[in-house]
Amino acid sequence: MTGNSKRIVVGFDGSPSSVAALRWALAEGRALAATVTAVEVCPPDTAFLPATSMSLHPRGTVPHPGAGPLARIAEQVADEAGARLRVRRVSGRTGKALAETAEGADLIVIGAHHHAARLATGMGVFAMDCVRHARCPVAVIPERT
Q1: Which GO terms describe its molecular function (predicted)?
Q2: Does the residue 50 lie in any domain?
Q3: Bridge partners (DSSP) listed for residue 86
Q4: CA 137 – CA 105 distance, rounded (Å)
Q5: Number of folded domains in the chain?
Q6: CB 141 within 8 Å of CB 111
Q7: 10 Å Cβ neighbour count for 35?
Q8: Residue 23 lies in a domain
Q9: Alpha helices per DSSP H over 16-139
Q10: Per-residue pLDDT tens over the stretch 3-56
Q11: Which CATH number fits the domain that encloses residue 14?
């Protein structure tokens, strides 16, 4: 990692593996004096289009960046670690959205949804998409069992 202002971006979806990744990133951020940002990648908001049904918005309301239960979980993990954390919510469906959000970061951290033994045989689609589009190193942290 280079530069005066180091940045670590963590993909966070509230799963045990993303909590493990966030804990790892917070420890790494503390050691490197880096800013850590937890990013939740959410499905894009739906909009009404002409000639389509006028159904309700799938979430009932439009989500607000940094709001919601996942942001509170991420902030609780940071409080337990005694670390500062930024939280962001971005619209997208793939690891590419996380990689684009991390533009200019020094490191992206994601949790492995596969057991550590399976990581040798491959990663999930989201992780591969993130690795493929990232412009910085990507750390894939297995959930501790």
Answers
A1: ATP binding
A2: no
A3: 37
A4: 9
A5: 1
A6: yes
A7: 16
A8: yes
A9: 16-32, 69-81, 95-101, 125-133
A10: 468 999 999 999 999 999 999 999 999 999 999 999 999 887 666 555 555 555
A11: 3.40.50.620
